[in-house]
Write a structure and sequence with these properties.
Blueprint lengths: L2 H5 L33 H7 L7 E6 L3 E6 H15 L2
Antiparallel strand pairs: 1-2
């Protein structure tokens, strides 16, 4: 589903399909002078982000930026290492 379709979704009378389960559009944020952003409250609550949490910022020049909790990422890396026998 395109971002345009997700933004234009109207559950009451359009022919657009229901947005994919688990996909969210939390709105926009403004980048401060020092590069900081405020993660919307709904996103923080959904993903359990608390003050003091370490976040990992990943980037792909073609797809954009992703932000995720560092401890969850490292847990996944460790699980993959264990599966590979490293």
């Amino acid at each position: 589903m395109s971002l345009d379709a997700l933004v234009a979704y109207d559950a009451h009378g359009t022919s657009l399909p229901m947005p994919p389960r688990g996909k969210h559009l939390f709105g926009t944020v403004t980048v401060g002078e020092r590069g900081q952003i405020v993660i919307p409250k709904q996103a923080r609550e959904l993903f359990g982000i608390q003050p003091g949490d370490a976040l990992l910022v990943l980037g792909d020049e073609e797809q954009g930026i992703a932000v995720l909790k560092a401890d969850e990422f490292m847990g996944r890396v460790e699980a993959m290492r264990n599966l590979a026998g490293l």
